[in-house]
Amino acid sequence: MIESNLERIGLTGNVGKVYLACVALGPVPISRVIGHTALPKATVYDAIERLHGDGLVHVSSELRNRVVSAIDPSVLLEQHESRRQRLNETLPLLKALFHRAQGKPNIRFYEGSEGIETALWDSLSGDSAELLSCFSMEELSVHPGMDRIHDYLTERVQRNKLLKVVRTQSKDLYQVWPSSHRELREVRYTPPDMVLAMTFVIYGNSVALLSSSKECYGMVIDSEEYASLMRAMFAGIWQMCEPTPYVD
């Protein structure tokens, strides 16, 4: 029963046998584990090396009569939860690649403030050298917050991605992030009667949409046709907007 459950979480064959021996015997010389499992010495040492690398056992640093002891088995659950979290973070990207290969659109929906941040940072993925965007600074100052927006913009410059951004002056709570050659940013302002209350970023064949704080969600649409439509709409808005002077 225990062996089969360990196999399901990746501790298969001799590795599982050695791990069970370490748990059952407590801190003992490795020679005791070899005798308990009746496995070849090299096999036991290889298994212990893997278990040590996985953070499941501790091995003393003494050159002679080295002692091995199992870490509290609850670490298995912690590692499982950690892997599950990483998988949850990676799965939407894998699904996006899958749907893209199938020629189908893909929609990723993220709830809450963390969802807004996730969708925003996704716009830095891929190899697109130019981002076309509308920033509602009033909403972004709430979710994900000005500090995280600053981190995002800094990372964008480090990745050498040009940002063309439309903003609405009535939504600009702070006089920050003007047009800058050094920071790869060109800013234009909408006419007074055009208020854009949501944030979006177009990058490659994807569009990230960030809602207001009232609805509080982030969404990414992976679709060549939708991205092309949004790019055409952005071009029309861009032509209507007022250029701003570069600070450098």
From TrEMBL:
Q: Which PANTHER family match?
A: HTH-TYPE TRANSCRIPTIONAL REGULATOR TRMBL2 (PTHR34293:SF1)
Q: What is this protein called?
A: Sugar-specific transcriptional regulator TrmB
Concerning InterPro entries, the annotation shows: TrmB-like (IPR051797), Tscrpt_reg_TrmB_N (IPR002831), WH-like_DNA-bd_sf (IPR036388)
What organism does the record attribute this protein to?
Acidovorax temperans
Q: Where is the Transcription regulator TrmB N-terminal domain?
A: 6-73
Q: Specify the taxonomic lineage.
A: Bacteria, Pseudomonadati, Pseudomonadota, Betaproteobacteria, Burkholderiales
Give a single Pfam family match.
TrmB
